[in-house]
Amino acid sequence: MSNNVLAFAESRGGDLRRAALEAVTAARAVADVRGGAVHAILFGAPGIGAHAARLGAHGADSVIVVEHAAFAQNNPEAVAATVAARMGSGYGAFICAASATGKDIAPRVAAKLKVPVASDAVAMTASASSITVTHPGYTGKILQTLTLTASPAVVSVRPGAFLPKENAKAGAVEAYAPAGDPSASRVRITETAAGNTAKLDLGEAPVIISGGRGLKEAGNFKLVEELAAAFGNAAVGATRAVTDDGWRPHSDQIGQTGRLVSPDLYIACGISGAIQHLAGMRTSKTIVAINKDKEAPIFKIADYGIIGDVLEILPVLTAEVKKAKAH
Amino acid sequence: MKIAVCIKRVPDMDVRFKIAPSGKAVDEAGLKFEISDFDGYAVEAALQIKEKLNAGEVVVISLGPDVVQETLRKAMSMGADRAVQLKADTVPADSYAIATALAAELKDGAYDLIMFGRMSIDTAHGATGAMTAELLGLPVVNAISKLEFDGRTAKMRRELEGAYELVECALPAVVTIDEGIARPRYPSLKGIMAAKKKPLETRSAQLAEQRLALDAMALPPERSAGRIIGEGSAVVPELVRLLKEEAKVL
Ligand SMILES: Cc1cc2nc3c(=O)[nH]c(=O)nc-3n(C[C@H](O)[C@H](O)[C@H](O)COP(=O)(O)OP(=O)(O)OC[C@H]3O[C@@H](n4cnc5c(N)ncnc54)[C@H](O)[C@@H]3O)c2cc1C
Ligand SMILES: Nc1ncnc2c1ncn2[C@@H]1O[C@H](COP(=O)(O)O)[C@@H](O)[C@H]1O
Fold first, then answer.
1. What fold is seen in the domain A5-184?
2. Is the peptide bond before B184 cis (omega within 30 degrees of 0)?
3. What is the ipTM of this complex?
4. pTM (2 decimals)?
5. Considering the domain A207-326 in this protein, what is its CATH number?
6. Which of A113, A263, B122, B145 is most buried (CB neighbours < 10 A)?
7. Residues B200-217: tens digit of each pLDDT
């Protein structure tokens, strides 16, 4: 078994995502225990290789660059085939982030290599021959300890659980050819709406401002967006009540049937704190709740609560955050 | 159109779980069980396709001990035509092992469409659908929130992180279902009566060797109760001070 670890360097729209640095950081920890090297594999349209240095700075000994015009878009079929082909040259593990992209890749790669996958790890320890992960299940109510004895080990790590660490390594670039023709994937993309690409995604934002039905109408979400803008490093989330009513897209939904997030700071605005919502955010480091009902269950898990009208409080909070940031 | 839907039996999550003495399972005493959330959406989506085309068959498949028959009957009471139980003493933690057994069952079924949940709500691997597709050599589209057909082409929408994608793929194909596609219907009394007579076959599951072991289950640490800072916008400066000085997130 090789001691080397392959890390998936996720990119979107020609840019590296934080998920890439997290995967490399998690891979470094495994490789260091085993005395192996970390290779980061990076897909994209021609030119993507320019990001190799950043991967090296975060612990990649080498960066395998796979450039092809058909990688300008999401292409899980061709990416998984290429990763599996590369894994065939001898690796002890493959690690990616459990982002939408990573979750699309990891099971495919694992199945091609005929091994299981340990998904969405929030903690990980490696020995010479196995990897043990902590994996939240049962809507976050139970932590499962899972040991992968298969080789290679395939693991996806929860965004935010393995913070990128600078750790300068060579980051030597190696060009690699895609397995098969990436333009020939059986699934064709006919349209992508990238949303606002400048906006931080829920999976990577250190701060999430989330709105519920207490905001009263879709238009009032601008108050949430203004607070997010004041923070500068925040993304906007929502409850199912809100996505069901079409105030926000489903992709903004946090909870049991939405996204699972654990930012440094989560501010719940006009959210009751239903069990299904808590399932998606209870592992946030600091939770703030603003609700006019002092009995709202969200206050049971909030570190700091303010009782009051969210429509009145949000603009004041935005102004105060701006002031604090200006100092 | 011949559609297979793979469904998992899971406990109702709206409870405080206890860990069984083995330390490796939840204590099932007093728990209610149901179809895993996303699998329920998948069953509903499959039934709507069949109703729209006014033709075809919906087959539900579940791997597990005999108690999963109850889950299969529930899906048949919603309207699925028949069911297959892949019998195993327990449901393994290893989703690759599950995928091998499902693929063995699905392989010769001549299905046009095979549906999974995006993830199971209990063990939450989010892997079984894509793995089964790989084993069957079929294309897979993960986490779809819309599905339509244009002849033999499936047209789908996927919600990504802060974006969405419209994709198409020729049948046969595997899809995993996200929320938003359809809310599961409640079985009617007529449906419940009819389900009792619908065929439910049982075969033993052909599981691959298990190489993902569940060592332990534990309850996460409780969040210590926080504090209410006060009422109204007057306390906002105090909140900001706490975020800065105590929580150090500003
Ligand atoms: C199978 C299943 C899966 C689900 N999955 C999810 C999921 O993934 N995510 C999710 O979020 N939900 C999910 N739900 C729904 C969940 O049960 C709740 O219905 C939902 O979270 C409630 O959203 P809410 O807090 O916005 O609305 P409500 O519960 O209506 O709460 C609104 C809150 O706003 C407060 N409020 C009202 N006006 C003001 C004001 N002016 N100022 C301040 N506060 C105010 C109220 O006091 C109340 O607490 C799921 C449900 C089921 C059955
Ligand atoms: N024991 C099982 N029987 C039938 N289908 C299953 C089983 N386990 C998982 N699945 C299917 O695979 C999906 C994803 O499960 P998982 O990979 O465990 O998150 C579920 O939503 C089901 O559609």
1. Rossmann fold (3.40.50)
2. no
3. 0.94
4. 0.94
5. 3.40.50.1220
6. A263
7. 999 999 999 999 999 999
